């Protein structure tokens, strides 16, 4: 029989959960608050959950070239969506093959995937390979293909696929289903929690990436959002540094440096904060699947 917990225990449990929620939410609120504050107020009074000296200067400065920001947003969305769909597809297919006990070259392929996790090829060989042999430099695909297949994600998916009862696959095989049919109509529907979790990781990898544009993109029209904001912040810091050297006297107080950093965080992280709740239930749900009914 289910018994209700005593009132004092429920109060303690709810209090702890509320405290955890506040610990997670307050930093986000603080970042948003600082983005609407003036730098002078921040220097004087410090951070707070309420804006101090409310202003939109930080957002005006970041969004002054709206056309470039919107173009970068579009590139980031295209790269993230395309990379997530292709990456999840390829990683899942490889993981499914490795999860099959009857696959002949299972051990060899596993070793082949683990080696890059331990021994990286290095920055210079990777740069030469991507630019000279693959000719991906200054193309949008250079932000997608290098991160398409991740051995760690394959191992996560393989672990889940291995837990799917083999009797389901055997029954489908007896009924005449092909490997593609089994994978698409049986394995993938059962693997929704794992696919959603890995898909979220892939999405974050692509959305937050600024290193690939830094290395391989010279055309400013192909900058993604993260790299565009990085360049903007770098330019502001250079402006302050050069003005101090030349005696112009521009200081951190003359530009919304601190609030601009937080405004960039809000602009860059906003879409992920909206998407994450849709994946949350899959993180809470265990990566297990019900057994075969007799």
UniProtKB/TrEMBL annotation:
Its main location: membrane. Coiled coil: none annotated. It holds the Pfam family BPD_transp_1. GO terms for biological process: transmembrane transport. InterPro entries: MetI-like, MetI-like_sf. CDD domains: TM_PBP2. GO terms for cellular component: plasma membrane. It is a multi-pass membrane protein. Residues 73-279 form the ABC transmembrane type-1 domain. The chain crosses the membrane at residues 12-36, 73-97, 109-128, 140-161, 182-207, 260-279. Keywords: Cell membrane, Membrane, Transmembrane, Transmembrane helix, Transport. It is found in: Cell membrane. It comes from the Bacteria. Belongs to the binding-protein-dependent transport system permease family. This is Carbohydrate ABC transporter membrane protein 2 (CUT1 family).
